[in-house]
Design a protein that fits this description.
heterodimer; A: 282 residues; alpha/beta; 6-stranded mixed β-sheet; 4-stranded antiparallel β-sheet; 10 helices; 30% strand; B: 208 residues; mainly alpha; 8 helices; 86% helix; globular; ABC_Transporter_VariousFunc (chain A)
């Protein structure tokens, strides 16, 4: 079963459009949703949450239509944005009272445990918290009704590596239950390499690929050499090419080139950069 | 909806100290000039200002984006603002009434029955004000909402002569008829319901 399925999603604004966005997130997995700023990650997430009205397309969460079963679905999801959107005069204890009235299964004990774990002061107003603290509070709020799906829109952007690591650990802990799933939008690809099972790459409002991270990283290799050496590469294997002062770097489909070529293992960031800046040749 | 209502009350609690100080100051002034009934419009105004303040707080933190990820209907999100306005206004007026009577009792100017009449007129105007203001704020946000309200007030001032000469005369005659204030109250309520329906339509069309 898929936790999330998007088929042929379209949404347009002035100067930007999501086109034919389709991908699915299998239950029990983490999907990294990557793309540069303005590629359409947040727009897609907002369409999933019905914060933006889609032009057309189908969005299913837990196999149910996201509008028809909106309340039922929203009881089972936790959402973290890149900022905490709650009135800044409230504190974590007041937010607990609010959330307890929203979710019948709100777990106050779990919530305060997370706050203690993250060292988030429960009586301090939101406006007095640092950005890192706000994000931790936001994550505690998203987790404490024990959702089945976490939708994270750039939750680690602007945070230092130590806090990011703590947050990623918490997400890994959440994934211990194999019915749980995460859609994790980020342009910090190193975070995704740590926890993602699948990578979906969006560029200019369209999906370039959506596949298993391991397959993705094993499928590609980077060839570094001179232009003459590179000319021996089969054209159909080349995905993207970057010319430098001392030669070329070419992203190739590993299994379509001879083993005689020495290829380096790419990172998600490399694949992303070749796709965006290297010129997609196929 | 209870959750949203509680959240707005928690925001009110944040300003409680200032509001009590302001209220005591107004009680002093009203007591000094022996016009107890004046407390009522003041309380209604405070209730309306508080609803506007919660809308402004919500807008500043992009609350709607968060609220719409929760299992809350859009009707409930809109309705909570109306409920807050009505509750604060009626609750505040109920608490203030004995004080208004007390001040009026020692006054030479207003008789007790006038406090009831003032109450009905104040509630009607308060309902009407909420009915106009909430859809405007939901549609345009607090920044533009404020300007639109100022424009309305400015136009009302400009049309003062017209109002005084034509409509005002009719209105005063109606108000003089004591029973009209009961009808006005019902009209105020109907306006509020009509406004709620419009506000929900506006809110449902919005992107967050």
């Amino acid at each position: 079963m898929n936790a999330l399925e998007i088929h042929d999603l379209h949404k347009s604004f002035e100067g930007f459009a999501l086109k034919n966005v389709s991908f699915s997130l299998p239950q029990g997995t983490v999907m990294g949703f990557v793309g540069e700023n303005g590629a359409g990650k947040s727009t897609t997430i907002k369409c999933v949450l019905n914060l933006l009205k889609k032009k057309h397309g189908e969005i299913l969460l837990f196999g149910k239509d996201h509008i028809e079963h909106e309340l039922e679905i929203k009881s089972d999801i936790g959402v973290v944005f890149d900022d905490l959107h709650v009135p800044e005069v409230l504190n974590a204890t007041q937010l607990d009272k609010f959330m307890a009235k929203v979710f019948p299964n709100w777990d106050s004990a779990y919530y305060f445990e997370r706050l203690t774990q993250f060292k988030v002061p429960s009586k301090k107003k939101v406006k007095e918290l640092s950005r890192g603290m706000k994000m931790k509070l936001s994550i505690a709020l998203a987790l404490s009704h024990h959702p089945k799906l976490l939708i994270l829109d750039e939750p680690t952007s602007g945070l230092d590596p130590i806090i990011r690591d703590e947050i990623l650990d918490l997400f890994l802990e959440f994934m211990q239950d194999n019915t749980h799933s995460i859609l994790f939008s980020s342009h910090i690809t190193s975070d995704l390499e740590k926890i993602a099972d699948y990578i979906t790459f969006i560029h200019n409002g369209g999906i370039l690929f959506s596949q298993s991270k391991d397959v993705l990283l094993h499928e590609y290799g980077i060839f570094k050499g001179t232009i003459e050496e590179a000319s021996a590469l089969p054209e159909h294997a080349i995905v993207g090419q970057r010319n430098g002062a001392f030669g070329v770097e070419i992203l190739v489909r590993k299994y379509e080139v001879s083993e005689a070529f020495i290829l380096e293992k790419p990172s998600i960031e490399d694949v992303m950069l070749f796709y965006v800046k290297g010129g997609i040749l196929t | 909806m209870t959750a949203l209502f509680v959240k707005d009350l928690m925001i009110a609690q944040h300003k409680l100290k200032n509001q009590i100080i302001l209220f005591l100051f107004i009680v002093f002034i009203v007591g000094f000039i022996q016009q107890g009934a004046l407390l009522l419009p003041f309380i209604a105004l405070m209730a309306i200002i508080h609803v506007i303040a919660t809308l402004t707080y919500d807008e500043q933190c992009n609350w709607d984006q968060f609220a719409n990820t929760l299992p809350l209907t859009k009707n409930a999100i809109v309705c909570s603002k109306y409920l807050l306005g009505i509750t604060l206004m009626l609750g505040g007026l109920t608490i203030t009434m004995p004080l208004a009577f007390f001040i009026t009792h020692f006054s030479d100017f207003v008789i007790i029955t006038d406090v009831y009449l003032t109450l009905r007129i104040v509630v009607t105007i308060g309902f009407g004000f909420l009915a106009i203001m909430l859809p405007i704020y939901i549609q345009f946000g607090s920044f533009f909402g404020r300007y639109i309200m100022l424009t309305f007030s400015f136009l009302a001032l400009l049309s003062g002569d017209f109002f005084e000469n034509y409509i005002g005369g009719i209105l005063l005659q109606l108000i003089e008829v004591k029973y009209f204030s009961y009808v006005a109250l019902i009209i105020g309520l109907i306006l509020l319901i009509f406004s709620y329906v419009i506000a929900v339509i506006i809110y449902k069309r919005k992107d967050f």
